[in-house]
Design brief:
Elements lengths: L13 E2 L3 E4 L6 H9 L13 H7 L10 E6 L2 E10 L12 E7 L8 H16 L5 E6 L3 H9 L3 E8 L2 E8 L7
Bound molecules: coenzyme A.
Protein name: GNAT family N-acetyltransferase
Length: 179
């Protein structure tokens, strides 16, 4: 994966009804570690990282790059949204396209926060890089992620076997040009 390319970054924080999307900051470090070390979060993502290792390796201020949003509820980080360009050409349908990823703390699941935040990130994306589709890959067994993909308007392109499980590749069409 590589970053999005020429977009104005960071944008002003994006406020939704209940959430704020913004770039990562030093105060998010502990939550990034919680996210990456969580077995629940990584059930369908190849397993969690070791917390001790993360404590040693994670920079004081989490990495910032165009397309990496922290999602905040009442002033505290609850998740991350990633928009990155897929460089892996093993899936021709995804190669070169922008890929949506999302990780939320288990305590925040089941409230519609991921759907609300992803919709806002995709709106931002439509303005930043108009006319580009977005793809999303998830294990088909990841029911929460599959439901979210459907709510966000992704439809199936293909299913394939990788990393020891069936994967679902979906695509959201490019937004119609403004006007
Ligand atoms: C995938 C993931 C983000 C989904 O989170 P989620 O909280 O289930 O997703 P949503 O924001 O869509 O919320 C879902 C539920 O909230 C409920 N909900 C409660 N209040 C709500 C509200 N005000 N508005 C909308 N939904 C609400 C809905 O019933 C909805 O359930 P449904 O999908 O059965 O209809 C989360 O499970 C996660 O972080 N998983 C680990 C990481 C991962 O696997 N990422 C995918 C690979 S990139």
């Amino acid at each position: 994966m590589s970053d999005l390319g020429p977009v104005a970054w960071p944008p002003e924080p994006i406020a939704t009804e209940r959430l704020v999307l913004r770039e990562p900051a030093a105060r998010d470090r502990a939550t990034f570690i919680d996210l990456l070390a969580s077995p629940e979060v990584h059930t369908y993502l190849g397993g969690p990282r070791e917390r001790e290792e993360l404590e040693l390796e994670m920079p004081r201020a989490p990495e910032r790059w165009p397309g990496s949003f922290v999602v905040e509820l009442d002033g505290a980080m609850i998740g991350q949204i990633l928009l990155r360009r897929a460089t892996d050409d093993r899936r021709p349908a995804a190669a070169g396209k922008v890929d949506l990823g999302f990780l939320f703390l288990p305590d925040a699941w089941g409230n519609g926060y991921a759907a609300e935040a992803c919709a806002a990130a995709l709106d931002w994306f439509d303005g930043a890089l108009p006319g580009e589709p977005v793809v999303l890959t998830t294990q088909s067994a990841n029911v929460g992620s599959m439901r979210l993909a459907e709510k966000l308007g992704f439809t199936e392109v293909e299913r394939f076997e990788a990393w020891g499980a069936e994967q679902w590749l979906g695509q959201r069409p490019a937004a119609a040009p403004a006007g």
